[in-house]
Amino acid sequence: MRLSDEFRDPALVRDIAHRIQRFAGMQATIMEVCGTHTMAVARFGLKSLLPAGVSLISGPGCPVCVTDQRDIDRYLALGMQPGVTLACFGDMMRVPGSVTSLERLRAQGADVRVVYSPMDAVEIARAESQREVVFFGVGFETTMPAVALAIKVASDERIGNFSVYCAHKTLPAALGVLLSSDEINISGLLLPGHVTTIIGSGAYDFIADKIGVTCAVAGFEPVDILLAVEAILTRLEQATAAIDNAYPRAVRVEPNSRAAELIGEVFVTCDALWRGLGCIPGSGVALAPKYAAHDACERFAAGLADVPPPKPTTCRCGEVLRGLIRPFECPHFGRTCTPTAPVGPCMVSSEGACAAAHRYEGA
Q1: Is pLDDT of 1 > 50?
Q2: Tens-digit pLDDT profile for residues 254-282
Q3: Which residue of 100, 220, 274, 282 lies most exposed, with the fewest beta carbons within 10 A?
Q4: Which residues on adjacent β-strands are paired with residue 189?
Q5: 205-241 burial string, b = 16+ CB within 10 Å, else e?
Q6: What order of strands is seen across the sheet that includes strand 28-32?
């Protein structure tokens, strides 16, 4: 039996769902922070297994979705410069910029390439030394180590035509801002398994200790998610706040030491712009001075200076990311915004809440 089969076992799912029914009558709003959780919840119909008073809402855990429009527009502007090759993950290709997208830019003749690893972009730079190769560094702590390694390799091997447009985000700081606002009452958080394998569950202790919100780290199979929901509801019943680990086969309290070492060497903390959340102090990373030669923002500063600020939009992705509205409450959803013609990133990304609702919930 494959590991995924074990954690999708229908009998075990039914057993946990039956146990959760003892919380009938409780009113609780649980935010699934991770976009992969959002997809899994929709795909497996897990909302239908919860008591009527327990609701799951999406949060700012899709790295593509939270990338600010300004960063997307600036990266697109680099692709319009002669001799520049853009390299990015596939999820970014159809994300709309203010006037175009990477997909449309490539159709117009720009050199835009989808890669599966940051090291693929380094290989392109090594093989095509006459071109400037710029990788789009998007994602949370999960993808940072691989990007850091690519930068380190390029530096060590003196590959001078490789740089990174760094739009990475660190998740704990954003969760602190979200929970400290009075926009929405969140009872508990389903914390992301992928990110937490890197930073360790201890990184969220402040959420329980200082903000008083209970959380549970979850894997990505139905059993994983339901066990985490059960842990949160149990804490709410006991009126205690804690960080529970419902994904012990992958997550520890301590961070991954090698990943932390790489991130700490290559990056420094900085403020970051988030779609829907604005500028959050200390929630991003920039390249450390030692690696500044591989910072696309520094290398192409003159070309980026003229990129205009994004214009206001009627897309409501920002509100979806804060849990203020459900995807179907956006007037564009399923009408002027579909997976084939997206208005905003939440309909594009494989982890986007709108894409999940459109594909699995038919709403």
Answers
A1: no
A2: 999 999 999 999 999 999 999 999 999 99
A3: 282
A4: 31, 215
A5: eebbeebebbbbbbbbbbbbbbbbbbbbbbbbeeeeb
A6: 54-58, 28-32, 188-192, 214-218, 243-245
Q: For the chain, where are the alpha helices, taking DSSP H only?
A: 3-6, 10-20, 35-43, 63-66, 69-79, 102-107, 118-127, 144-156, 171-180, 193-199, 205-206, 222-238, 257-266, 296-299, 301-304, 317-321, 353-356
Tokens of 133: 């190769």
Element holding 113 (H helix, E strand): strand 111-114
Cα dihedral 171/173/179/182 (nearest 10):
-130
Is residue 179 within 8 Å of 213, Cβ to Cβ?
yes
Residue of 270, 264, 116 whose CA lies nearest to 199: 264
Q: Where are the domains of the chain?
A: 3-62+176-245
The pLDDT of residue 3 is: 56
**Phi, psi (degrees; rounded to nearest 5) at 137:** -85, 95
Reduce the DSSP state of residue 181 to 3 states and report it: coil
Q: Quick one: the chain helix, strand, coil %, rounded to 5? A: 45, 20, 35
End-to-end CA distance of the chain: 35
Taking residues 296-314, report their average pLDDT: 91
Fill in the amino acid letter for 41. Answer: V
- CATH classification code of 3-62+176-245: 3.40.50.11750
Two structure tokens written together for 311: 């214009």
Q: CA neighbours within 13 Å on the CB side: how many for 324? A: 13
